[in-house]
Amino acid sequence: MQKFEKLTGLVMPLDRGNVDTDAIIAKQYLKSIHRTGFGPNLFDDWRYLDPGEPGMDHSQRRINPDFVLNQPRYQGAQVMLARDNFGCGSSREHAPWSLMDYGFRAIIAPSYADIFYNNSIKNGLLPIVLDSAAMDQLFRETEETPGYRLTVDLAAQTVTTPAGKVLKFEIDAFRKHCLLNGLDEIGLTLQHVDEIKTFEARRRKEAPWLFAK
Amino acid sequence: MAGNTLYDKLWESHVVRQNDDGTSLLYVDRHLVHEVTSPQAFEGLRLAGRKLWRVDANLATADHNVPTTDRARGIADPVSRLQVETLDRNCHDYGITEFAMNDARQGIVHVIGPEQGATLPGMTVVCGDSHTSTHGAFGALAFGIGTSEVEHVLATQCLILKKAKNMRVRVEGKIPAGITAKDIVLAIIGKIGTAGGNGHAIEFAGDAIKELSVEGRMTVCNMAIEAGARAGMIAVDDKTIEYFRGRPYAPKGEMWDKAAIAWRGMTSDAQAKFDKDVVLQAADIKPQVTWGTSPEMVVPVDGAVPDPDKESDSIKRGSMQRALQYMGLKPGTAMRDIALDKIFIGSCTNSRIEDLRAAAAVVKGKKVANNIKLALVVPGSGLVKTQAEKEGLDKIFRAAGFEWREPGCSMCLAMNADRLEPGERCASTSNRNFEGRQGAGGRSHLVSPAMAAAAAIAGHFVDVREVR
Ligand code: SF4
What we know:
The structure holds two protein chains of two kinds.
Chain A: E1 6-13, H1 21-24, H2 44-47, E2 79-81, H3 94-102, E3 106-109, H4 114-121, E4 126-129, H5 132-144, E5 149-153, E6 158-160, E7 166-168, H6 173-181, H7 185-189, H8 193-206
Parallel strand pairs in A: 1-2, 2-3, 3-4
Antiparallel strand pairs in A: 1-5, 5-6, 6-7
Chain B: H1 6-12, E1 15-18, E2 24-27, E3 30-33, H2 39-47, E4 58-61, H3 78-94, E5 97-99, H4 109-116, E6 124-127, E7 141-144, H5 147-156, E8 158-161, E9 165-172, H6 181-192, E10 200-205, H7 207-211, H8 214-222, E11 231-233, H9 238-244, H10 253-264, E12 276-281, E13 288-290, E14 298-300, H11 314-327, E15 342-345, H12 353-363, E16 374-377, H13 382-390, H14 393-400, E17 403-404, E18 425-428, E19 443-446, H15 449-458, H16 464-467
Parallel strand pairs in B: 3-4, 3-6, 4-5, 6-7, 9-10, 9-12, 10-11, 15-16, 15-18, 16-17, 18-19
Antiparallel strand pairs in B: 1-2, 2-8, 13-14
Bound molecules: iron/sulfur cluster.
């Protein structure tokens, strides 16, 4: 996975609650058998005015100028502000893949759907949780201030505003460790091969029907 | 020790090791695989030169992309075809059992798992699909995972996880006539919201849940994820155990007796503590219809589209306004006055034999209304389809003007050719009414199979209890 340490990036506000994974990356793009190339189709239905299909030249499509992602002032954004229950819906890891492929490295929201949260961390996309009051302030400042940038420091677990205000966030130790070091979780688990084998052997004895076929 | 929840028991019996940082390495008994979320996982395995940990723990099928007509001609869309062929090849290369597109046992992954007895009580079941929560209906710990986790399970048969909190949703009392599992779960989501179960595993309990058939319980657990919970589950009882007798992957003979004893323990202890407890009265539940673009935007069929101006929370008000605009609806419109273009009976929520029977009972001897452009019935699996045909349900549907299709996900997410066109309105027995879910610009209303069938006949929503 990609490491995440510290970043100062342009901020884009996505002021909607319950943004689901179907909205983040629409089903027709899930037919890909690769992990990359989803960036041009992030938020496809909101971002373009014409319907999209895989294999199209998306640069030729009609864009929706009202959608925040298309506004000139947010081009190159790396940090996204979102509202409650971001990433709800399906387990598609294509959601964080497309956010990352577009260029986002961190999301800040009051809450996330569980599977999306996990999937993000496994790809080096940092989902930060801040309370609704802090979110309201960040949304306001971002909208009022062209070129608004936030500094996200994972080691310190802080988000720092341009005015120097420091907001602390929580993240559990294991996930933080993996993200900071870009660790391969499978490699970590395979350090415990013997324990898995012992467990499996016991289970095979206690519940042999689980291994019957 | 007394005082454990079903979730505690399932969790603890699968912990391989406890890490210092609060995570656990959890063993996975069954891994179900489908074509959409697995290709990148197999690719990762190959790139790292890793082997499959336990071949026999995996079972695969192609469901999301497969066409529901003319299968003999293969898959027309080359991108879909490549994805399905990639699954075939991966299963072949790694020795995984696959019910490929033309296998009689092929179907939606969450329908075929229990149907085969490949998911059993007491198991941990995972799949790269959020509706894996379905399998919790059998006293199993079942949840959806992302592709990185699919790869992790393929390589290690384990996952690194943090235990969730315990939540219980009790539905008390007797289920009123004409009310189905789908109405119950939509009412639950309407009450607790789509984020109500975030961070929790939900156990569904109470007399009404006990009264449900095993298939109805699957419908309820299927939508636990729509309430924000990665896992939903229901305690084992006689119905659960009987369901598995004689299924291909279920134990037989002496082994069956041993297993059945173990399965009986898959319940919460009487003194078990839950972090969150919610109670609904079954008597209050009416047939449900969603009006918006989130499953929590739901009202009883005798209700009306709500008015955002009466919502005090500004973020909620904004979502309601956006939903109404997308859905092309005005506040105050009676749900019964909403006319439909298409009907979809299918998906892992409602495509099992009982669902088809319930819909056929409403449709029998009647005709689909003229304003309905397409009414689809898509059985959940090849075996469900065969059973339905044996019972003559296909004839009932066809005579009424429904199309009878081959099994798969179909218009639940419209990855194949079955979809809504922009602006089209659909009564759907699936689980998600998100924007564009059933086709870009399409408008979905979630209902039970009987309600979808009644709407097909009337051309608009009706209370199925009044048409019988
Ligand atoms: S039927 Fe729908 S919800 Fe179920 S697995 Fe298929 S796409 Fe997902």
